[in-house]
């Protein structure tokens, strides 16, 4: 079995870059942290790695990526959630940076989830697993 790399790919940056480049998400804040002044009612996708696994024999990172998707209405948040998942699912077979996205699998979502931090928020959550071949 091969040892894991000294540092995993910065999957959060990779996903943020993919989503920011998608025309369907123009005007949506895409970030790993809520921007200053955020109250949960803006169009936003917050991206976080929730874990995953290194498959040494395949030289493959399989991160779990969570999307917290917000909008001014429940419907707007749902539209944005679907645009974000479509954009990431479209990366299958593409080389991004120094990584090949060999698979994208939805693990959960998008599902409606109240946000107790931002009372007026309209939020959907989803979790997607990527398979990133490391060169």
Total helical elements: 2
The rough form would be described as: elongated
Beta content comes to 35-45%
Total strand segments: 6
Q: Structural class from helices and strands?
A: alpha+beta
Task: Tell me what you see in this structure.
This protein is an alpha+beta fold and 135 residues long. It has helices spanning 11-21, 74-89; strands at residues 29-31, 44-55, 60-71, 95-96, 99-112, 122-134. The longest helix is centred in the middle third of the chain and has 16 residues, at 74-89.
Per-chain topology:
Elements: H1 11-21, E1 29-31, E2 44-55, E3 60-71, H2 74-89, E4 95-96, E5 99-112, E6 122-134
Parallel strand pairs: 1-2
Antiparallel strand pairs: 2-3, 3-6, 4-5, 5-6
Provide a quick synopsis of the model:
The chain has 135 residues and is α+β, with helices and mostly antiparallel strands.
Keywords:
135 residues; alpha+beta; 6-stranded mixed β-sheet; 6 strands; 20% helix; elongated
């Amino acid at each position: 079995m091969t040892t894991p790399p000294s540092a995993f790919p910065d999957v959060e940056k990779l996903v943020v870059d993919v989503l920011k480049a998608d025309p369907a998400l123009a005007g949506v804040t895409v970030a790993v942290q809520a921007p200053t002044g955020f109250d949960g009612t803006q169009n936003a996708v917050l991206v976080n790695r929730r874990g995953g696994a290194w498959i040494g024999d395949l030289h493959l990172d399989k991160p779990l990526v969570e999307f917290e998707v917000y909008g001014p209405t429940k419907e707007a948040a749902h539209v944005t959630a679907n645009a974000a998942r479509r954009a990431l699912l479209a990366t299958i077979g593409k080389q991004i940076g120094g990584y090949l996205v060999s698979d994208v699998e939805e693990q959960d979502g998008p599902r409606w989830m109240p946000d107790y931090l931002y009372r007026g928020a309209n939020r959907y959550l989803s979790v997607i697993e990527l398979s990133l071949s490391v060169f």
